[in-house]
Design goal:
Largest sheet: 9 strands, antiparallel
Distance between the termini: 58 Å
Helix content: 25-40%
Radius of gyration: 21 Å
Bound molecules: adenosine monophosphate
CATH class of the largest domain: Alpha Beta
Oligomer: single chain
Length: about 400
């Protein structure tokens, strides 16, 4: 039976649905706080399986397995948001008397579907968004062309991640091809943002409403996949603070318990626009693992376990570089022998193109990142792709 005490004691069991690297790093953070971790995933080779106290390997649709899992843990959390809706409904309606479920089904259902996410964000009057339209058929597609004008981006509502499930369309021919190719329908049409840079903020909220925000960071993507993060973002304090305020507003409005990443664009006129929300630890928060006394995974576990939330301070500036696919893994020997490079590997044996294999953090003295002399050299070693290496 569920223990209704607000803070889970050491030895309690954190249940994580999903077995990827975010689950793996969450499990390590949970172990540091004295918790045991039970992973529920579909594949025994997943990265989180290696570091878990207990594992259930079953389909996310197996109600028997989900029920046993809920009975065996004290709180359930998620390391990815695309959990099947039936699974979320079953856990919430049939299992929530066994354990806490954090964040709630509302947070997951809102953020796993771009239409719901944009409808929710649009309902928050203070959240700025690029113009968008819901596309269900040829009529709504024509309306999108009328409202947005070419070019725009067509995105699937569900299952899009790392730039997958989206197409840049410049004319009617490209539009018709994209409309047929992109599945599942319905789709979202979104204006192309002429951005100066991409930013994100990790925000964490406790069950009693305490909010903490990590520094606003700048992200560099390569073919839609995060390649590198600069922490803090080299921006004016006003913009960084505004980005944090937007993230706080969203976390409050969702009644979030746990951590969430909010991705934004800074357009060339200096305005912030929210791109999307990830209701879990996020790749753009990996720098916190070495640059902060309490990282994003510590904070998430604390929030869902009802422990106090310390301030999300950083003691160092940092660059985080993802190790993606075979090209980046070729850098590993150099990374391993470079003093000050801190690698985090996910235990995946096959480096397929585009696969996130690990990341490297490099620290700089607090306040030194913008304009630091060390950065050019660091990037010379780390940057295989981003424009930063030039
Ligand atoms: P998403 O999966 O929506 O986060 O998109 C992945 C990447 O595509 C983003 O990080 C941007 O680099 C780019 N992108 C997505 N939407 C837009 C947009 N409306 N305007 C310009 N670039 C975009």
């Amino acid at each position: 039976m569920m223990d209704k005490t607000p803070a889970l004691p050491p030895g309690s069991v954190i249940g994580i649905i999903g077995g990827g690297q975010l689950g793996r790093m969450s499990a390590i953070a949970a172990a540091k706080l004295g918790f045991k971790v039970h992973i529920f995933t579909q594949s025994v080779t997943d990265p989180a399986v290696d570091v878990a106290h207990n594992v259930t390997i079953a389909s996310y649709n197996s109600t028997n397995a989900l029920k046993e899992f809920a009975q065996a843990v004290d709180v359930i959390t998620f390391e990815f948001e695309n959990i099947p809706s039936d699974t979320l409904e079953y856990l919430t309606h049939d299992c929530s008397h066994y354990c806490f479920i954090r964040p709630s089904i509302y947070v997951l259902q809102t953020t796993q579907d771009r239409f719901k996410e944009k409808t929710f964000l649009t309902s928050q009057t203070s959240i700025p968004l690029a113009p968008w339209c819901f596309v269900t058929d040829q009529t709504s597609l024509s309306l999108a062309v009328e409202k947005l004008g070419f070019p725009f981006i067509l995105k699937t509502s569900r299952n899009g991640y790392d730039g997958k499930g989206q197409r840049y369309v410049r004319n009617l021919e490209e539009l018709n091809t994209a409309f047929t190719d992109l599945t599942p329908h319905p789709l979202i049409a979104e204006s192309v943002v002429d951005f100066a840079c991409e930013l994100s903020v990790m925000v964490v909220r406790s069950h009693d409403g305490i909010l903490r925000c990590f520094d606003t960071v700048q992200n560099y993507h390569w073919h839609g996949v995060l390649d590198m993060t600069l922490a803090p973002a080299p921006l004016t304090e006003n913009i960084s603070t505004e980005a944090q305020n937007i993230a706080r507003t969203i976390a409050e409005a969702l009644d979030l318990i746990g951590i969430m990443g909010v991705e934004m664009f800074l357009d060339r006129t200096g305005h912030l626009l929210v791109n999307e929300i990830a209701p879990r630890p996020h790749n753009s928060g990996h720098w916190t693992m070495d640059a902060c006394p309490y990282d994003q995974f510590d904070m998430h576990i604390r929030a869902i376990a009802g422990l106090p939330l310390p301030h999300a301070v950083r003691h160092s500036d940092a660059i985080m570089k993802n190790l993606i696919g075979p090209e980046d893994m070729a850098l590993l020997p150099r990374v391993l022998q470079t003093q000050g490079f801190i690698p985090h590997l996910y235990g995946k044996s096959i480096a397929r193109p585009g696969r996130k294999m690990g990341h490297v953090n490099v620290l700089f003295p607090f306040g030194s990142l913008p304009g630091s002399l060390g950065i050019r050299n660091t990037l010379g070693v780390l940057a295989t792709k981003t424009a930063l290496e030039k």
